[in-house]
Every structure is written in structure tokens, then in C-alpha cells.
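Re: your question from the hallway

Yes, I did run it. Sequences:
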Amino acid sequence: MINLTIGEKIWQAVVYFILILLALLCLLPFLYVVAVSVTPESEVLRRGIVIIPESFTFLAYKEVFISHGIGQAYKITLFRTIVGTALNVFFTVIAAYPLSKKYLPGRSPFLLFIVFTMMFGGGLIPTYLLVRSLGLLNSPWVLIIPHLISAFNLVIIKGFFEQLPAEIEESARVDGASELQSLWRIILPLSLPVLSTISLFYAVGHWNSYFDAIVYINDSNLMPLQVILRNILLNVATQSADSLANSGAVSTFAVQMAAVVVTTVPILIVYPFMQKHFTKGVLLGSVKG
Amino acid sequence: MQAKLAADAIPLTKKRNSWLRTIKKYKVMYALLLPALVYFAVFKYIPMAGIIIAFKNYNLALGLWDSPWVGFRNFTDFMNGVYFWDIMRNTIIISLYKLLFGFSAPIILALLLNEVYTQWFKKIVQTITYLPHFLSWVIVYGMMVALLAPGDGLFNMILKEAGVEPISFLTEPAWGRLLIILSEIWKDIGWGAILYLAALAGIDPSLYEAARIDGASKWRQLWHVTLPGIRGVMILMLILKLSHILDAGFDQIFMFANSFNQEKIDIIDTWVYREGLERLKIGLATAVGLFKAVIGFVLVLAANKLAKKFDGQIW
Amino acid sequence: MQRKAITFAILTAMVGVGTVLSGCGEQKEVTSTASSNSQGQSSPFETKLKISMFNQGTFNAAAPIPPREEDIQRQMLEKAVNIDLEMLIPQSGQATTKLNTLIAGGDIPDLIFLKSRADLAQYYDQGVLADLTPYLDQFPELQKRFSNDSWEAMSYQGKTIGVPGYDNVNGISRSFFIRNDWLKKLNMEVPTTPDELFDVMKAFTEKDPDGNGKNDTYGFIGGMNKEGNLQTYGFDSLMWMFGVNPPSAIDVKDNEPVFLYTDPKMKEALAYINKMMEAKVVDPDWVTMNTPDLLDQKLFKGKVGFMIRDARRLEPDYQQKMKEISGEVPEWIVIPPMTGPYGDQIVERKSFQGNSWAISKKANKDKIIRILSMLNYLFTDKEAYPNFAYGIKGIHWDLVDGKIKNKTSELSKEMKEKYLWVDHYRMPRRGDDAEYFSFQNPKTAEAFENNQKYVAATLPGNLLTEDPSDSLAADRQRYINESLVKFMTGKEPLSSWDNFLNTLETKFDMQKYKDSVIKQFKEAGLIK
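Structure:
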């Protein structure tokens, strides 16, 4: 790595340049959101696009916390994200393991059975009727149980399991390890990158979803963060024109952006923590050694 | 007669025995699989009975079973719509572009990140490119207006300063699809790369060493080690994306479409929203959903068969 | 002192508007049965009933629902008619989905607020809603609370299937705003005809009315909502100068339906707007104006000289905002609408009573009566009124010298935010309640008052409901909207107007729609 040829140096420079450019493209809009949330509305309207505010105010954050019941919604979202993700990953992994064994009789029909559900579904009303008859309506569990396993994630994790070198597991089995032991001791440690990826997919999925809550929950105390965020974002357009309310309490642009910040920052922090599992080759080497 | 029965019976019991033996042999494996099968049966297959709504004039009060049958009326209503061919064409074109670029962009990003040796730089770029995934389309569109509006949009103000005629990006039909695809790539490039980064992390480093000792150039390493290492995921993602070929992205296009550009970007789902859901035509919406599913399913079956050649099939 | 004068002026103005809001006069002597058993006394009902309420009529869907002990309005309703009230506020944009799943699951809310007559008719057709005709006679107060027009809008197939949702207010949200300082600077008069307006807009665009030496001002800006409906933010007002309007404006003349969007006069309106576009007097940002707040921003920035906005933008809060943004308060005034070539001088049509309260078909007689009693209390009880229309006593309003005084406009921003949820109960507020609006700026009150003269009668087309077998309805709507926009912008020349009409007939089966319209007008007795 030290003695790079000139060609390789140029190549490295190109790579860094492209990545920095892309990072800026992705970062600036986010800075804009943050900037608007702490800038007085008049300044935003006057300047158009704000990245570095001239004056600061945290009024928008105050409004988000005071008038929109964010605290309770945080609890619900944390519950569904933490408990939900744990259950999701557990049930996905235990199903993906047998499905990754090509020798398992019936494997193909089972996989087809699962993949089929990615395209065909009963639609909103039949699913609602089922959930209702199971007595799940208006319970926080309705945010978790109906999405217990994602066929997409299951197929992905199964694909990764399949690509693990079969010899490692075989040697463990020869040593007398049971299937469960080899899953726990061999497969899972080797699959940390994909396990963290799938956990992230599930966690972000839980964090971002709102539709199931809107449909299955009536009690406003059980609504997750995203529902509140959407309320704040979408209400502006319709409110004043239709109802001629006199409270003058239309959410401003700053409040919308503050709501975006408040509802997204916690989940953003998750990613850097799982990046350490992406370090190339570390795991495989350590297990082999 | 007797003999025939006996002859039939023997393989039957034999078969049953072998069945039982198989289940017994793999009892742990089947036990692990059971919760998932039950889950999919209950939460996915039971509601699938609702597909019959596609053949009914669904009435909210009468419900699933008592609503009147209408045969293929919902399907013919869909296909006889004046804009049917327009929305089919738009859906397929947008979807194919998204498949082509939305599929390859994250792979390229992952490969570029793979070339970076400075770990902190790599981590920061990774984290930053993943940010846009968390901005909903409502907000993204709001920003595009701030940037691209024909009058006060930043970009057009710059054009005006430069003496160039402003361009109405958000309403010109010619720009509609391009904006949709670019913004989709921008929003999900970092998010999509995560999976490939996970796959890259799984490549055995000794393979690179061996290649280097053999004097393989960077390109040959990419071709012979890196790409084969993520080929499985690539094929998998391609198959899974095909299953939703007729979903061109409702949330996004609903935000981007307006009276000016919808001739180029109105898709099946936005049409169903206007014609079906807003008018309580639940039968129509279900029929279109079924239509999309059948096409997706056929494509997945074909793709899976093709993938067998590369040993990348799902089942 | 000044405020009192304004209040009086508005009241006289409202009386002048006619008998539309009869039954809400301040001096009415009749004491209702409901008001005698309001606060303090027990309700006349012995058994407690549980009532679920689907309230998409809330004035602020983003406001949270407070716990019962803080929710004074809920307690009042529960006490008045001995019920257990479960209110559900659907999320904006998802209300239909939510209601449909509830109904499909058999959990039809007992009391449903519906936003349009189309919804009311659709759900009734699907067998979801109860016929209220047999019960309404027992509630004369409630019947008197709304005008005959409003009750007519509740009738469908000869039955009354709803109770009016809340009073509409006219003459406020479509006010004609013009920059008086620009007019003065350019030595121009307030325009009174389309041609004069055009000259003013042109001068606003070209003659640098703000004197900054830059060519950055425009004569006009309008917009349209996401669905491409031009009936929303400004262009419809321009079209009224020619007596026409975009879909679904349908009038009846000489025993025939007149489709105002395909009327020959529409061609003139489109030609006028096209002339504006060609002359570049329309701010090019009009194409992205699909929500009212975007247009408000344009108003605040003050680079456009003429627009259609809510008269309440003259209020001090907004004036303050304009000052913060542009450093000075532009002198916006609200002017009367221009008189068109056919003598039309219209701000808007009087709003149709589209919204309504409907009751579940599953509710039995007892429940229906109980719910109607609740609505009766909510809408007609005099003592309860300020608690719903204004908010909480001591916070939003108070008794000053024995008179009710609305203090909402004096509340701090924080207090307003804390009590956002009182908006869930504001529906009983009367359309003519000056105390409710309590304008701070006399000019707002004046604009509101003047506008009343130009509120034309409701269009009969509002009574129409869609024929469910008309499978091209959405496509046709889209085609008309797109075509009108193309004619406006000049993308399609007006010479192909006849072509447009032909395509509507041949490709979009306009005849089927016309037949359905004629049939419904006949049933309603509007044509013979």
C-alpha cells in the first residue's frame, strides 16, 4: 500500500474526489434542514436557501416538544424499534438457516411459498380484518407482530448463509456439534456483517413506518413518532384554507424541519456503531485462525 | 384388482415412511423453519383470500363475501381507461431506468468505498451518503422547489445571472423522468450500498493476497475476486427488484407529478389513487394490484430460472 | 372603542347578506330545552351510552388529543347527554383509508364527520349511514340552527342523511390584494375592469414599482393544487370576471345545465390569462404554487403586485412578518373584484354546505337520538357556545362586563401552542360571529364586509354526485384540467378549442356525464 504506482495514485485521487463530491451532495440538504430549523422564519424567507444562519432560535424545537406530544411517541417508537428488531432478527435467522441448506428436502417449495408473498398480498382490508380478529387492534404489538418476518430480509440472509464455506461447518459437525450449536458458534459469528445489515434494515423500517399505526391504532397515545412528524408536515397545506381556524397555529417551515431533526437523528446514530462489522475480512481470518 | 391395490399400497406406505424418516432426520431444521411457515401462512396467505375483491364490486357494508361479483369488469375498466397505455409506458420506462441506475449506483459506491484505505474517511462518507434515505419525499420535493423553481429557485437565479433563460425543471415533461431517477439515486445510493459493503466484508482477504502474488492488476483483482464475491447478492437483488417492476414509486411520483408533467410521469399507482381509492373503488384497486403481482411473479420465475445458470437462484 | 365599531359593522353587513344564516341572530329569545340542562344539571338520559366520533372536521388535525381530565369540552359533551365520548382524529391525507378500514372491520364510528357531499352520498349508497329523516323533527332548535340551503345539501334521494358540519364563511379567503403603494408610485387607479387590471399588472411588471432598479417584480401570481385543479389559488377568481370557472362548476340556465368550463366564455377567460402569460406579468413560480402557504410567502416577500389571498393577511401578525422579511410593510389593500365584459363582479360563489355529520347505520334509535341530542347541544346551547367556538374560559375567552370577550388573538404563542387541541371542537362557531374572528386591523373587517357584496349564489352543480358506473370520471377530470392549463400557457393555441370539446365527447364519453347531470337535476327539480 505504501509504494503506489503513479497510475494507482491517480486512481486514488479520482476515487476520493468522487466520494467527496457525493458526500457533499448528500450532506448539504441535511445541513439545510438543520439550518432552517434553528433560523427565524423571516430570515429563511428573505434569503431563500440557508445553510449558515445569521441568527439562531430554538423556538421551533420548543413548539415541537410542547404542542405535539413527542415524548409519548418516542416511547412507542423506541419500543417497536428495539423489541421489534430483536424479534425480527431472531425469527428471520432461525428460518434462514434451514433454508440455506440445499440438502434439506422441501427447501425449494418452502422458499417459493415465502417469495410468493412478496408479490401477492390480500390488500389492506383483508389484512385489517385478520389483525382485528386476532385481537391485535389498538395494541402496541400490532406494530411488531404483523411484520415479524420480511421475506426480503429472509432471502438475503439465507443467501449469505449459503455463501459461507461449507467446510467450516462440516468440520464442526464432525466434532459433534449439533445444528443449533453450529448455527450459534460458527454461522452467526461469521455473518456479523449481514446480521448488522439486516438489523439495520429492520430497525430503520420500524423507525420509519407510520402507515400500520394509522390503520391499526385509534388511541392517539399509542402513535409512533413518524405519525406525529407527518401530522406536522402535511397539515400545513390544508389547515388554514379549509377550516378558517383562528388560532393562527399553522406549523411553520422551521417547525417542520425541527420535527424532521427530532425524529431522525436518533436512528442516524445507529449506523456508525455498526460499521465496525464491515471491516474487511477481519472475521473470517479470526475464526479460521 | 387385489393385486393392483396391494401394488399401490406398498409404495404409499413406503412413501409415508420415508417422509416420516426425513422429518425425523431433519427435525431440528424443520422445527426452526416452523415459526416462519406459520407466520407466512397466517399473516400473508389467509388475507390472500381478499384477492377475490378484484372480481367484485366491493361494498364496504356488505363486505368481502357478500359484495356482488362482477367478473373481469374491474380489469376491463382499468385497461379501457383512456390513459392506460400512457401509464403503462411511463411505469415501465421509469421502473426500468430505476432498475438500471438505481441498481448499479449503490454497487459502484460500494466498490469505490472498497478502494479507500483511510478508515475514518470511509466511515464518514458511508454515514453521510446514508443520510438522504431518512428524508421523506415531501421534504425532498420541498428542497427541489427551493433549488429548481423557475423564479426564486437558486439554480434558476444563477442561470438568470448568467443571462440564460430559466428552465422550469419541475414542470417541463422532458425533465420529469430525469429528476425522478436522479433524486431516487441520490436518496438511496448510500442505503443500497450497505448490503454490498456487508458482502465485501465477507470476502476472504487471502484471495486478494493470492491474486497480488500472482501479479494481478487492480482491474483483474476487481474482476476475479471482488465481483465474484458480491455476485450472489447482485443476482439476488436483481431478482427481488424484478418482482416490483410495476411499482415505479408512488410516494415519490405523487409528489413530483403535476398538471404539466404528468403525461410523462403518471404511473399505474397514481392512476389507481385517483380513480380507485379516492372514489371508493376498492375492487378496481385490488384488480390492478393483482395485475401487477402476476407480472412481477412471472418475471421472478423467469429470472430465478436464468439465475440457476450462475448458481444464484433463490430456490 | 374602535373594535366595537368594527364588530357592529360586520354584524350589519352579515344581516345584509340575507337570511342565509337565519336562526343565529343574537337577540333570539327562544330558550331551548338543551340549554336549560347544560352545565350543572344532570342530563335527561338515564343510561350512559358509548359514542365513537370520527372527527375529520377538526380545525387542526395535527393537534394532539388531551387526556380526559384536561379536556373540558369533552367533559361538557359527555355530561350534557350522558355519554362516553371516544373521539378519533384521523391523520390528514389518510382519513379515507382509516374510515374505510374501520367500516370494513365492522367498527363503523357512531358519528362521522364527512367532508363533501360526494362522500356523504357514497357512504350512504354503500349502506353505511343511517337515514335521519324520522328523528330530526324532535330537534327544532338544531333545524333552525342551519339554513334551508344547508339542510337541502343534506338530502339525498329524498332523505335527510346528515346534519350540516359547520358554517362556511365567505368573502374572506379569496380577497383581491393589490399593492396600493405601487399604484400610487405609478400614478395608477385601482383597476375596475379586466383591461384596466391588465394594464396595472403590466406596469407592475415592467415599470420597476419598488424602485430598486431591478427587473424583479411581477403583476400577478396564482397557482393550483396538486390535483391540477385550477379552482383553488387565484386563477378561478380571474375566470369569474368572465362568469366561468374550472370543473366542477355547473350552473343551470334556461332549463339546461351549463358547464362553465366548456362554455364559450371560458375561451375568453383563457385568452385573457394567456395574454397575461405572454406579457410575462405572471411570476414564473406560479407553476410550483400548490399549497396556500407558498402563496403566502410570495405575499410576504412583496415582489408581486396583485394576488388573491385571505383577508386576514392584513392582520398585525402577518404585517409583522412582512416587515421582518422585506424591512418594510408593503401597503396591501383589498379591492372589489373587477367587473367583467358580461357584468360579472364576483369574489366567489357562496360555499355549498359540503361537510356534514352522519350517523352509522348500525346505531339504533336510542343511539341516534342521543347523538342528535349531542349535536343539538353542541350547536345550539348558548352557554356552551363560547366553550366550543372560542376555547377555555379564562384562557381563550372571558366575561368582561357581562359580555363574552374572545381573547384568543391576545394569547402568547406558547399558550396557543399548548392549547392547539381546542381546535378539535370549534365546529359550532357561527359564520357571522364577529367575536370569533375579532379582527385586530379595521381594514380586515372592512375587507370582509365589502367582499360580502360580491359573494354570488351557490352553483347548483354542487348537488351532483358521481355516477359510480362512469369509469372515465378521473381520466376526464385530468384531461380537462390539463387542457385548460395548456390553453392558459399557450402550449395549445385557443384555435384548437373545438378540438378539445370534440375529444371530450369522443374519447372521454362526455355525453354519459351530461346525461347523468341532467337526470340528477331533474330529480332535484332544478330542470323540468
